[in-house]
């Protein structure tokens, strides 16, 4: 979309931010001040971009005009009034798409640097960096490796200091991956050689703030090649649930069950079958994770992001009323906040969570009640402990559980397409994207584009109801 040369007149921007304008977004009174500012910014940007797209550049310089709906407009107020009155629906759709894209980016990007960030430079972090002078650089760069997954909740007075230490530590050890730091703790998944990751674990365990145990780290085969780069940043939450940690704290989490205890609970649930109507086995991961691997007879919400989990709970409270809930996720961190949120609703009889998540369960029970693959957020996409395939090829329906990114540029959806279907050209996540991909290949453009959504996302409610 062309860049706007002029901003639209203010009188056509002051629409009421009600439910019809936001097309499903929260009403104005439910939005925070920052959300209202974001939405207003997106609304102005969308309006200006729409007007700019109608500009007639064929005329001589100095004779600006706009063509729309078979009419020619030579004054700014005229084209602005026409767009505001005639194209209200299109502007609303553009605004919502831009707003959701912005929120998605804010979820993934670190917080803006705080005024007290200079403290990170004033604190000497060298004491927390291990001496590796006696270790050949080759052992840090090459050889067998692994991927580490961990988190630790604790009070972090200055997360920027910890962030600086983490970046220096990972760079020294040639680790790649992602580390999130917040005032509520730290969450990371990094890859490197066995030597490098062992040093990293020891450094984490010896840091006076974290005091972690070796069992707090989940490991799997891999290495630095499992990630494209290193990303270390300061965030509001160490797992993005979208709820202020000061409002819903990890300290209100459910009761932790060791893998052996969780296994017995699931065994009893399956043994009783339909007779056990007071217990829910809840998968609090995203739909594409549970699609390829899950516990037998679990409830797997059809959500696209963990930040949708609170709304899912709110819309399905009766489902959980007077029930015993057994929650699980990949490594345990989402259950910490997810169980706290569920408990805050005061509808469940009991809320339990699998300590260490599926990772730790599979270490103890590789052929247990969890069947299929375990989705991981790196270049591997999945790891496995059993041979079961519980999902199908999106096109031919044969058993298949190996994800690939949709081949359509800017889509970013994952697709299950078997080798045979990929050879036949079925490499997109849906027919709409497949057609769109062909069109892009035929007429590629260097112009920047927004991340697109296709029928895969459009056909899935943001917060589905499972009652």
What do you see in this structure?
It holds the Pfam family Rhodanese. The protein has 467 residues and is α/β, with parallel strands linked by helices. It folds into four domains: 65 residues, no CATH class; 101 residues, 2-Layer Sandwich (Alpha-Beta Plaits), CATH 3.30.70.100; 125 residues, Oxidized Rhodanese, domain 1; 61 residues, no CATH class. The chain has 17 helices and 17 strands. The strands form six sheets. It has a five-stranded mixed sheet with strand order 6-3-5-4-7. A four-stranded parallel sheet has the order 8-12-11-9. Strands 1-2 form a two-stranded antiparallel ribbon. Strand 14 and strand 15 form a beta hairpin. Helix 9 crosses helix 14. The longest helix is centred in the N-terminal third of the chain and has 21 residues.
Quickly count the domains: 4
Share of residues in helices: 25-40%
Estimated radius of gyration: 25 Å
Using the coordinates above, name the CATH class of the largest domain: Alpha Beta
For the record, what is the CATH homologous superfamily label of the largest domain? Answer: Rhodanese-like domain
CATH topology of the largest domain: Oxidized Rhodanese, domain 1
- Give the percentage of residues in beta strands: 15-25%
Q: Report mean pLDDT, rounded to a whole number.
A: 83
User: Major beta sheet, specifics?
Assistant: 5 strands, mixed
Tally of alpha and pi helices? 17
| Class inferred from helices and paired strands | alpha/beta
Query: What's the CATH architecture name of the largest domain?
Result: 3-Layer(aba) Sandwich
InterPro entries: Rhodanese-like_dom (IPR001763), Rhodanese-like_dom_sf (IPR036873), Rhodanese_C (IPR022111), TrhO (IPR020936), TRHO_N (IPR040503), TSTD2_N (IPR057944)
Protein name: Thiosulfate sulfurtransferase/rhodanese-like domain-containing protein 2
Pfam families: Rhodanese (PF00581), Rhodanese_C (PF12368), TSTD2_N (PF23949), UPF0176_N (PF17773)
Domain Rhodanese: 275-370
């Amino acid at each position: 979309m062309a860049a706007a040369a002029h901003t639209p007149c203010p009188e056509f921007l002051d629409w009421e931010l009600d439910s019809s304008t936001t097309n499903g977004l929260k009403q104005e009174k439910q939005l925070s001040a920052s959300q209202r500012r974001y939405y207003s910014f997106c609304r102005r940007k969308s309006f200006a971009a729409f007007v700019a797209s109608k500009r007639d550049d064929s005329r001589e310089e100095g004779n600006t005009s706009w063509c729309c709906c078979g009419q020619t407009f030579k004054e700014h107020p005229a084209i602005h009034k026409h767009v505001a009155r005639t194209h209200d629906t299109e502007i609303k759709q553009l605004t919502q798409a831009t707003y959701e894209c912005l929120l998605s980016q804010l979820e993934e990007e670190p917080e803006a640097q705080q005024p007290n960030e200079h403290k990170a430079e004033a604190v000497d972090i060298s004491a927390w960096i291990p001496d590796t002078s006696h270790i050949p650089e080759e052992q840090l760069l090459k050889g067998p490796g692994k991927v580490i997954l961990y988190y630790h909740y604790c009070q972090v007075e200055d997360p920027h200091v910890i962030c600086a230490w983490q970046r220096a530590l990972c760079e020294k050890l040639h680790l790649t991956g992602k580390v999130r730091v917040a005032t509520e703790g730290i969450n990371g998944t990094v890859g490197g050689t066995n030597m490098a990751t062992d040093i990293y674990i020891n450094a984490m365990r010896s840091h006076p703030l974290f005091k972690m145990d070796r069992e707090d780290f989940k490991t799997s085969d891999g290495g630095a090649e499992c990630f494209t780069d290193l990303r270390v940043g300061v965030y509001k939450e160490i797992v993005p649930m979208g709820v202020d940690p000061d409002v819903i704290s990890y300290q209100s989490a459910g009761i932790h069950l060791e893998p052996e205890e969780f296994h017995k609970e699931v065994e009893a649930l399956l043994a009783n079958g339909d007779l056990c109507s007071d217990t829910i086995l809840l998968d609090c991961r995203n739909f594409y994770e549970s699609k390829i691997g899950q516990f037998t007879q679990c409830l797997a919400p059809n959500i696209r992001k963990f930040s949708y989990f609170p709304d899912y709970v709110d819309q399905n409270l009766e489902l959980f009323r007077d029930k015993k809930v057994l929650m699980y996720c990949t490594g345990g961190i989402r259950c910490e906040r997810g169980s706290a949120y569920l408990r805050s609703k005061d509808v469940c009889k009991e809320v339990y969570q699998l300590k260490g998540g599926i990772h730790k369960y599979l270490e103890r029970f590789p052929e247990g009640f969890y069947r299929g693959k375990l989705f991981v957020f790196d270049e591997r996409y999945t790891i496995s402990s059993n041979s079961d395939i519980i999902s199908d090829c999106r096109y031919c329906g044969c058993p298949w559980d190996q994800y690939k990114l949709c081949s359509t540029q800017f889509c970013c959806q994952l697709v299950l397409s078997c080798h045979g279907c990929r050879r036949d050209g079925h490499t997109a996540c849906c027919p709409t994207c497949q057609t769109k991909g062909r069109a892009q290949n035929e007429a590629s453009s260097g112009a920047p584009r927004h991340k697109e959504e296709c029928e895969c996302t459009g056909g899935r409610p943001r917060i589905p109801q499972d009652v």
